[in-house]
Design brief:
alpha+beta, 10 helices, Annexin V, domain 1, 30% helix, PH-domain like, 378 residues, 3 domains, seven-stranded antiparallel β-sheet
Length: 378
């Protein structure tokens, strides 16, 4: 009996050590130590919790702590991540957002349910709720002035190339009509205070406007997110016919590079430092009095190193003005210096790394146009 157990444990370890099984099948996290005995995939602890909530599809066990019988190990050996992915991820639309372990719970859960429970990607040309170019429904939207979430009708149209929302269900004219190419969407459960919270941003007169929404159904809000990506993808395919699918995919919705509180001073650098919420959205650094403000109080363009932009730890010597946080950083632009302070050294280093990643990238022709607008505005 002991010999049989040793043989099974050895066989399990051999399957586990395969290169294909070194990352979680669902989120890509390294060194997964759980597996599904019914699907044959190796997964991380976090994804195993999602699998456990769909017991009709997946039975999960710890690779370290649970007992595996011979038949289960043979099933894992026959399948594994590569074989199972080839079945359940065979026909993922190019625009569909595949979350990683850094993404929020609702994205990862709906990705797992879409694959294994709803089997959305097993057949080519399958009609999906986010793929037909039109989506209409109710989302709970935060009021710009009163902060209350109220139900609003939203309409997304590929034919019109826009997203609209209406303050009343029977309204004929939308409150806003936003072109799809200026929209971004990113999940913000912590900021919004709802696990299904979605932040939609768009440019209005070259200024960023925020809309905060949620839906009670995780599936519905993720369907909206992927519907926006689908409409964007098809719009950009027409606008940039020679661009590859992957090039266009990289221009769809994006997560912010960094968000959090910093203190800032004014252009004279003698004013008191004020605490503000900052969002770095690629080359746009925006600051808000409150994280849920609809409009930024100001925006700073962050260009490239070859165009005279840089970031430095610390503040210039002799900096005046009262500040309560002592981990400073300075953004140098061709026109002026911007001074900020962070609460902790870890936050300071994170912000410096985020700015450096942007500054080290060459600017695109479109970004030169945005830089020119910022200079004209100032």
């Amino acid at each position: 009996m002991a010999g049989s157990n040793e043989r099974i444990v050895k066989a399990l370890k051999e399957v586990w050590r395969r290169a294909e099984n070194s990352l979680c099948a669902d989120c890509g996290k390294p060194d997964p130590d759980w597996a599904s005995s019914t699907l044959g995939v190796f997964i991380c602890l976090s994804c195993s919790g999602i699998h456990r909530n769909i017991p009709s599809i997946s039975k999960v066990k710890s690779l370290k702590m649970d007992h595996w019988d011979d038949a289960q190990v043979q099933f894992l050996a026959k399948h594994g991540n590569a074989v199972t992915k080839a079945i359940f991820e065979a026909h993922i639309p190019i625009y569909y957002y595949q979350p990683t372990y850094n993404d929020c719970q609702v994205l990862r859960e709906q990705w797992i349910r879409a694959k294994y429970e709803r089997e959305e990607f097993t057949e080519p040309g399958k009609q999906l709720p986010y793929s037909n170019g039109v989506k209409e429904g109710i989302l709970w939207k935060r009021g710009r002035d009163n902060g209350q979430f109220l139900p609003r009708k939203f309409l997304l149209s590929e034919r019109e190339g826009c997203l609209k929302y209406f303050t009343k269900q029977d309204a004929k004219e939308p409150k806003i009509n936003v072109k799809i190419d200026v929209i971004n969407a990113t999940f913000q459960p912590v900021k919004i205070g709802n696990p299904n919270g979605l932040q939609i941003t768009y440019l209005k007169d070259n200024k960023t406007r925020n809309i905060f929404v949620y839906h009670e159904s995780g599936k519905e809000v993720v369907d909206w997110f992927n519907a926006i990506r689908s409409v964007q993808f098809h719009y950009l395919k027409v606008a940039f016919p020679i661009a590859s699918d992957n090039e266009i995919k990289n221009r769809l919705t994006r997560n912010f590079l960094k968000e959090g509180y910093m203190e800032k001073t004014g252009p004279k650098q003698r004013e008191a430092f004020k605490k503000r919420w900052f969002t770095l959205d690629h080359r746009r650094l925006m600051y808000f009095k409150d994280p849920l403000d609809a409009f930024a109080k100001g925006e700073v363009f962050v260009g490239s190193r070859e165009n005279g932009y840089s970031v430095q730890k610390g503040l210039p010597s002799g900096t005046q003005g009262n500040f309560s946080w002592h981990y400073g950083l300075t953004i140098v632009t061709p026109d002026r210096e911007y001074l900020f302070t962070c609460e902790t050294e870890a936050e300071q280093l994170d912000w410096v790394a985020a700015f450096t990643s942007v500054i080290n990238q060459a600017m695109t022709p479109q970004e030169y146009a945005i830089e020119a607008y910022f200079k004209f505005k100032s």
